[in-house]
Amino acid sequence: MASLASHAGFLRDKASHAASRVAPVELFFDLVFVFAVTQLSHALLAKMTPQGVFETTILFLAVWWTWICTSWVTNWLDPDRWPVRMFLFAVMLGGLVLSASIPDAFGKASLAFALAHAIILVGRPLFMICALGAASPGNRRNFQRILAWACISSVCWVAGALAEGNARLVLWSLALLLDYGPAWIGFRFPGLGASTTADWDIDGHHLSERCALFVIIALGESLLMTGATAQKLPVSAGTVTAFVSAFLSTVSMWWLYFAIGAERATHHIAHSADPGRLARAGYTYWHIVIVAGIIVAAVADELVLAHPAGHVATSYLLAIVGAPALFLLGNGAFKWLSAPNFPLSHLVGLALLAAIAAAEFLMHLFSPLGLSIATTGVLIIAAMWEWRSLGGGAAMPAASH
């Protein structure tokens, strides 16, 4: 791999009109994460307890970190170069192992999950250090710091896999802290200094499109789960209504993300003097909340389809109301990066969801289907409010709503 250092051509040509293009191999790479999102939804559905939610959150954060960090890498490297393609295929293989291990990641598959994640964590910055060579000294130093943190984190992942029970939860939580935390301090490491966001000279168009594609993956997985569940159920007024509510909920989330926010954020980051700072906050971190909301929505839709009538259990309430709340919170914060204020439409939506949750918790007003219809209505209200307030959906780079 050391021979890669002589190939400055591995970097994207930013002067080219195609510099921001998402390459076919990147889309191929994303297919592994369609599987991962499905696995995460099923894992949460199978264990809707506080511990199950905590465990699924750990797995989701590990999967997201694998995907988003690789997307940053391909923002700098040219995926059409064969060594970069081979690197992506290797990460795909590791991601496939990671995804396949999710159902039993806290059981017999713990070591497979941890080793796959650890190898990707260490292998990715190693490849970048060799590929960058002398072409980008500042970024090469940045990835040396990332590698140092990754080595420590990897030890925690493997140690957690070899431990059991609460010890594994503690070690894997620590590993995630070591994965996510250093970026906020510029990957500062003893003897290696710290990076600045100016070192992360990214192409905003490319990274925004990559994250938009991941949102599409999550929304598509939600529709797939809805369709697969509905297919197994007898046709009735309840299941048909639940099916339509689930569909409208997914469409509303698509509308809220793509009609205004994604395009405006792309414009904002592409013209920013510090795109690395915006990308770290908006794409690396706030998109976690957006995607989590969509995954939980898929779980909520399946619960309502299977059991539209009767009492709303606490787990149902948290899933049905929590999913749109997560989505509106993450989407609103993401839009706030390119607007003066947190979107009023999203704030009102969050307030309505809180009122619905309180009414159900205190007075038991809803069935699962009724609760689903109410929360879908909130998403539709938020989408229409925002669309109307911005003049029928015109993308306005500095609009307040």
Fold and architecture overview:
This protein is mainly α. Helices cover 73% and strands 0% of the residues. α4 (110-132) runs antiparallel to α5 (137-162) and α8 packs antiparallel against α9 (275-306). Residues 1-7 and 393-401 have low confidence and may be disordered.
Quick rundown:
By secondary structure, the chain is an all-alpha fold.
SSE layout and pairing:
Layout: H1 24-46, H2 50-76, H3 82-100, H4 110-132, H5 137-162, H6 165-180, H7 204-231, H8 237-270, H9 275-306, H10 314-336, H11 344-363, H12 368-389
Helix pairs in contact: 1-2, 1-3, 1-7, 1-9, 2-3, 2-4, 2-6, 2-7, 2-9, 3-4, 4-5, 5-6, 7-8, 7-9, 8-9, 8-10, 8-12, 9-10, 10-11, 10-12, 11-12
The count of β-strands is 0
Helix % is over 70%
Provide the domain count.
Answer: 2
Biggest beta sheet summary: none
Q: Note the overall shape.
A: globular
| Average predicted local confidence, pLDDT | 90
What oligomeric state is this? single chain
Q: State the separation between the terminal residues, measured CA to CA.
A: 50 Å
Radius of gyration computed on alpha carbons = 22 Å
> pLDDT under 50 segments (min length 5)?
1-7, 393-401
What class, by secondary structure content? mainly alpha
User: What string gives the helices and strands in order?
Assistant: HHHHHHHHHHHH
- Quickly count the helices: 12
Q: How large a portion of the residues is in β-strands, by DSSP E?
A: under 5%
